[in-house]
Every structure is written in C-alpha cells, then in structure tokens.
Amino acid sequence: MAKRPPSRRRRAPRSSIVLRRLAVVGLVLIAFLYFRPLKTYLQTRDVLAGRSAEVRQLQAQNRQLERRLQASSSTESLTLEARRLALVKPGERLFIVKGIAAWRRKHHTLGGGG
Q: What is the maximum span of the chain, computed from C-alpha positions, in angstroms?
C-alpha cells in the first residue's frame, strides 16, 4: 500500500472570498438602510394606537354629552333647571325661605319620623 501525502485543505479561490465579503457587506448595508424607516414605522404605529384610543374615548364622551343634551332639552328638565336658578313663571310669586337648615336641626328626631 502506498502512502498518500497528508491532505492539505485547499483554499477557496480569491474571487470567491471577495464575493462572500461583498455579500456580507451588502447585507449589512441593506440592514442599516432599513433600520431607520422601520424604527419610524414602529413609532408611528404606537402613536396611532394611542390616538385611536383617545378618539374612542372622545367618541364615548360625545355620545354621553349628546344624551345629556337631549335630556336637558325636554320641558320638565328645563322647568327644573329654571326653578334651581330661582326663575318664576309669569304670574307666579317668588317666596324666599331662610333658616331651613336651623329649623331642621331644631326639629330633628332620633327616629327620623318627623
């Protein structure tokens, strides 16, 4: 049996090594160029989510205010609010009673029955 010389690893051709390095540099460059737009996109998406939540909250508040407006435009609620402001209808007489709280304290019973 003949002995074979120890095998040496053959080195890849120089052009192959250069192509590999260029490919790696190209990939790094592409990743670098995509980083900033991707970061901006993610930040914008987060801001949009926050604004959408704010819009939903304001829409709910708007619906509540619309319901209050409809309820306050009824005749009964307008009359009640006018009474709170001490307004009277034409021909009515306004009486102002003072000292109600003191009277209640004086006539207060433990049973609460009056």
A: 135
pLDDT digits (tens, 9 = 90+) for 39-57: 999 999 999 999 999 999 9
CA 25 to CA 22: how far, in whole Å? 5
82-109 in b/e form (b: 16+ CB < 10 A) is eeeeeeeeeeeeeeeeeeeeeeeeeeee
What does DSSP assign to residue 73? T
pLDDT in tens, 49-93: 999 999 999 999 999 999 988 887 788 888 888 888 888 888 988
The single-letter code of the amino acid at 6 is: P
DSSP H helices, 1-114, are: 14-72, 75-84, 100-106
The encoded tokens of residue 39 equal 């970061």
Q: List alpha helices for 73-110, DSSP H.
A: 75-84, 100-106
